[in-house]
Amino acid sequence: MPRVIGKLLRWVAGRPTTPQSPHPPALRAARPALLLFGLALLAAQGCARVPDEVTGDQVRRRLTVSFSVAGQVNPQYFYFIAIDADGNPSSGPVPVVTAPFGNGWVTGSVTHYVEFHLGVFGVFRFVPDTNLLVADSLGSPFEFNQPQQPPGNRISATLDVDRTLGTDVNLINLNIITTDRIDIDPTFTGTKIFDALGASGNQFLTLPLNVTQTFTNAQSPDPETAGDLPPASSQGVDFSALDITDWTIQVQVRQ
Ligand SMILES: [Ca+2]
Ligand SMILES: [Ca+2]
After folding, report:
1. How far does residue 193's CA lie from ligand 2's centre (Å)?
2. Which of 34, 47, 66, 207 is most buried, most CB within 10 Å of its CB?
3. pLDDT at residue 38 tops 50
4. What's the chain's average pLDDT?
5. Band of pLDDT at residue 183, cut at 50, 70 and 90
6. Residue 204 is part of which domain span?
7. What is the mean pLDDT of residues 231-241?
8. What is the pLDDT of residue 231?
């Protein structure tokens, strides 16, 4: 096996980074981004969906991200799979943890995301040079589960890599981020409740997409655990619905 491929196969967790929030003046554009979330309501609910022109046999590369939480998935909360497809493995998606809150959930380097909220999956692509405040809807994931059905603690979504990220994208950074609300109020001084990969939440993954392979939480040098949400006294928030406990990521490349 060529050495360069061997290096790619050695997936590593992303180095911890200090979250950098977008510039405050752009906050005014946050509402359109949130409205775009709402567009996902138009997407079909329920079982796996196949885009109009593509059948399963025609998909060259699939990326399936599955993760579970300690309790039950709460459709009122927000569950994100954040992807950075810019080709630079050293920076990636990290959760927003303090003011200024930017788009309310993600900062760092991120280009695409899958969202599950209000019972609906959506795929989005951030518009460049908008400080992660504006995103275009790309429809539904190629396949997805029904998180609210028993056992009710797992979310799974599959992307058609070539159609969603691009045929030239062979390496991504990825993080899973959960939060109870999208809070962009710059005057909010409380603790933001979230979970993301690793103890700090900043341990985004670096994954090659050109080889069929399965990555698991158990293999990770900084595995995701239960009970690692930041301490916060927030009445009425079900921490167990946000606490990521396990994940599996599968890359399938058709030969
Ligand atoms: Ca975590
Ligand atoms: Ca956790």
Report:
1. 12
2. 207
3. no
4. 82
5. confident
6. 3-50+58-253
7. 82
8. 75
pTM reported for the whole predicted model: 0.80
CA of 225 to the centre of ligand 2 (A): 5
- C-alpha distance across the termini of the chain, in Å: 17
Q: Is the pLDDT of residue 226 over 50?
A: yes
**Domain count along the chain:** 1
Q: Is 125 helix (H, G, I), strand (E, B) or coil?
A: strand
* C-alpha torsion angle, residues 188, 203, 28, 42 (rounded to 10): -110
At position 119, the amino acid (one-letter code) is: G
Distance 63 CA to ligand 2 centre (A): 22
- What is the helix (H) or strand (E) element at residue 30, kind and residue range? helix 30-39
Contact call for residues 171 and 209 (beta carbons, < 8 A): yes
State the ligand closest to the CA atom of 246.
2
Residues with CB under 5 A from ligand 2 (ion): 195, 228, 243-244
Cα-to-centroid distance, 196 and ligand 1 (Å): 4
pLDDT classification of 143: cutoffs 50, 70, 90? very high
Q: Measure 168 CA to ligand 2 centroid, in angstroms.
A: 33
